[in-house]
Write a structure and sequence with these properties.
Two copies of one chain form a homodimer.
Chain A lengths: L13 H8 L2 H12 L4 E2 H4 L7 H13 L3 E6 L2 E6 L1 H7 L3 H6 L4
Antiparallel strand pairs in A: 1-3, 2-3
Chain lengths: ~100, ~100
Amino acid sequence: MVQFVHPSREDITLAGVLAALADPVRLRIVKSLLDRNGCMSCREAAPCPDMAKSTLSNHFRVLREAGLIRTSKQGVEHRNVVREADINARFPRLLKTIVAFSE
Amino acid sequence: MVQFVHPSREDITLAGVLAALADPVRLRIVKSLLDRNGCMSCREAAPCPDMAKSTLSNHFRVLREAGLIRTSKQGVEHRNVVREADINARFPRLLKTIVAFSE
């Protein structure tokens, strides 16, 4: 069974969050997850329908390792949710400010 | 004579700014420049006095190419200033929000 690695709240770093969001595709994924206000599968959150699955998986891995999203397995799907409470506790207003500039 | 390349305001991208600030050393350089409210030589803005000159130059180059600082030659020194007006015009509140979390 796949185990996802999530950093604890205290281990979320500013550098990690900024680096993860510095990619326009990843920023759009986070924005999509926030806009839909909840869980989405990787496929639903993909900014381009024709994006290779491996590329998409890599983007989700980077977001997960930065502490921006939490992934869980539900049946055959991976569901993703933005860790808003954790990010806002560590860096108040940061996520909202950055996501507002996403195209 | 050394010519420094600075992107125009319109060419400053969110991805470029976030990637440049995702490095703790570069973030501290920007914070130092902002705190001193004006120009500083590369050496003055160095977060560690024993940092290699080439490492420091590279950090300044990344910041410059992202549109975060403007470098000019004054005598034998390079003077640096944060392009606050340009960054704030492109991404209001972004710089202030991120720099506030710099250690």
